[in-house]
Structures are given as structure tokens and as C-alpha cells.
Specification:
The protein has 326 residues and is an alpha/beta fold. 34% of the residues lie in helices and 15% in strands. Helix 6 packs across helix 7 and helix 8 crosses helix 9. The two termini are 29 Å apart. Bound molecules: 4'-deoxy-4'-aminopyridoxal-5'-phosphate.
């Protein structure tokens, strides 16, 4: 945690309070700020829910010390849970669809967790099903279920949201974030709307994903390369509340890829593809506020850069668009 200068007792004390940095390729009149979540110890936004959810489940007696968390995860959540579980005397098992990055799976194992793969063709739905099966077979096991557990949203309501408002003295017109489980956006949005009910809220998804359908858009379902956000079945995204969202912005893989490369080259940010997508969308919202097309209570847009590109080097994230495996 860059904001702490005193010695800390545990790596868990370094979760959150990440830097908020201006994104320069945005209108001067409506600045965009991004929270750099790779500064967390597990190097992603998901450390926040790993710590918050395990601590809360232990406190509420839903999880016993020495018990096991079993979670279906695209990877970053596993790392976040594994960091926290290791320090809180909890075992961790993760069910990961094969297509997700090998770096993430290696890091979960390095933190002492067990990783189980499910076929890519079964999607996240297949991983969720397998996690529940395993939990039935394992004593003292809990599936935190980041896709349906309100603690996921609460973690961001309690940490990410207040951090943003503190950093910008409450001067926030729009919140923009990619949606995987939608925990990040929902927590930020709820906090933002409590501060000012007119705050503009935009969800970000890859082109081909179906969150847009919850707002009535007739969009085609397609495969996409952007990792960590999007959905092929909105019924699994129980936390996403379309009523809190003004707009779902679709970002094509190519735009997200161009932008993550630009962010590295021009602004010194080594970020993953979901950050590229968030940056494209946040800029669009800032331009619309500038042009009077969106009415926002302040001329500032905030977004989240969820993780680092280092996690995707083996998938050729910095190669050409066609060579990038996504
Ligand atoms: N980006 C990346 C790289 C992620 O791993 C995730 C989590 N799946 C997200 C964005 C989206 O976060 P959330 O699940 O809170 O919507």
C-alpha cells in the first residue's frame, strides 16, 4: 500500500487504499481518474473481496477457522481469496475454467491453494456447479459465491467507494467500471448514489457480452477476448442491478487492446484488458459530459484499472491484436 509509511504487521494490511491517478488521454474539462488496483498484494481488485468476505464470514460464524473456501473463479478472485485465506487459517480450493490465464492459476497454487480446472466449453456456469459439488463432499466447506454474495458488493461499498470520495473531496460526476460479477461497480455505485443520487453510473462489458440486454438492448452474443468482465448468461450475475446503472457500454476487443497498449506506451500503466476497456468507456462518458450529452453532478469521471498486464504476458497481450490470445 503506497499510502502507508509505517511498518505493517500483515500483508492483509496492504489491501486497498490504492493510488488514484489521472488518465491523460481524456478531455481537459472533464478529467478521468483511475484506481490502480494492481497495487494490492495479490495485484488485483479482488484482494479487496478476498479479505473482506473471509473476515466477515469468520466473524459471522458462516466459516470456521480451519475450514475451507471453495470458489468458482476466473483467477483474480482466487488469488485474492488465497492471500486472505493463508493469513486467516482457512484452506482454499478454486475451480477455474481452463481458458483463463496460467499465471493466475500458478499464483493461486503458490499461495497454498488447490486449483481444479473445468472445460472452457462449460463456461463459468460449469465452474459454479462443480464448486457446489465439491463443497458437499468437503467437511467445513463454504462457497463464498462471489456472483451472488452481497458481501462482494459490500466490500466495495465499504472500501473502494469511500476511498474515491476521499481522494476527490466528493467531486465525482460519474462512476464507470467493468462488470464481471459486477461487485466492484455495484459497491461503488451504491456508495456514489448515497452521496449524490444524480451520479452517472456506467457499466462496461466486452462487445459480445450480454449485460446490455438487462437495459433492453438487442445485442448479439459472441466470444470475446477481454478477460475478467462480461457475461454470457445474466442469470448468473445476481449482483448486477440494472436500476442502478444509467448505461451499459460495450467495448470491442480491438479498442480495449489498442487502449491497454497506449496506456503502457504513453502513460506508464501496465494494465490488463479489462482496464483497457474501462479506460475507453470512461473517456466516452467524459466526452459526453463535456458535450452536454450526459448530465452529471460534477465534471469528473472515476474508473478502475483492475489488474496488471504481467498476468497475461503468456497470452501475448502486447503482441498484435490477432496474435493476442485474450
Ligand atoms: N477485471 C478483471 C481482470 C477481473 O478479474 C475482474 C473480476 N472478474 C473484473 C475486472 C470485474 O470485477 P467484478 O467481478 O467486481 O465485476
Amino acid at each position: 500500500m503506497t499510502t502507508h509509511r509505517e511498518p505493517l504487521d500483515s500483508v492483509l494490511d496492504t489491501v486497498g487504499r490504492t493510488p488514484l491517478v489521472r488518465v491523460h488521454a481524456a478531455p481537459d474539462e472533464v478529467p478521468v481518474y483511475a484506481k490502480l488496483e494492481s497495487f494490492n498484494p495479490g495485484a488485483s481488485v479482488k484482494d479487496r473481496i478476498g479479505k473482506y468476505m473471509i473476515e466477515q464470514m469468520l466473524e459471522r460464524g458462516e466459516l470456521e477457522p480451519g475450514g475451507t473456501v471453495i470458489e468458482p473463479t476466473a483467477g483474480n478472485t482466487g488469488i485474492g481469496f488465497a492471500v486472505a485465506a493463508g493469513q486467516l487459517d482457512v484452506n482454499a480450493v478454486f475451480v477455474v475454467p481452463e481458458r483463463f490465464s496460467k499465471e493466475k492459476q500458478q499464483l493461486m497454487a503458490a499461495l497454498g491453494a488447490e486449483v481444479i480446472n473445468t472445460p472452457t466449453s462449460d463456461g463459468m456456469g460449469g465452474a459454479i456447479e462443480r464448486a457446489y459439488q465439491l463443497a458437499e463432499e468437503t467437511p467445513n466447506a463454504v462457497v463464498p459465491q462471489q456472483f451472488g454474495n452481497p458481501l462482494n458488493v459490500e466490500a466495495h461499498y465499504e472500501t473502494t467507494g469511500p476511498e474515491l470520495y476521499e481522494a476527490l473531496d466528493g467531486n465525482i460526476g460519474a462512476v464507470v467500471a467493468g462488470c464481471g460479477t459486477a461487485g466492484t461497480l455495484m459497491g461503488m455505485a451504491k456508495y456514489a448514489l448515497d452521496q449524490n443520487p444524480d451520479t452517472y453510473v456506467a457499466a462496461v462489458e466486452p462487445e459480445g457480452s450480454l449485460y446490455s440486454t438487462t437495459k433492453g438492448a438487442d445485442v448479439p452474443e459472441e466470444e470475446y477476448k477481454i478477460e475478467g468482465i462480461g457475461t454470457h448468461d445474466t442469470s448468473t450475475n445476481e449482483l448486477f442491478d440494472p436500476d442502478l446503472v444509467d448505461e451499459v457500454i460495450q467495448v470491442p476487443d480491438k479498442s480495449a487492446h489498442d487502449e491497454l497498449k497506449r496506456l503502457g506506451r504513453e502513460e506508464g500503466h501496465l494494465v490488463g484488458s479489462s482496464a483497457g476497456a474501462a479506460s475507453v468507456a470512461a473517456r466516452q462518458v467524459a466526452e459526453k459530459i463535456r458535450d452536454g450529452e450526459i448530465d452529471a453532478p460534477a465534471d469528473t469521471v472515476v474508473t478502475i484499472f483492475p489488474d496488471s498486464s504481467e498476468r497475461y504476458l503468456s497470452k501475448g497481450i502486447y503482441r498484435s491484436f490477432t496474435e493476442w490470445e485474450g
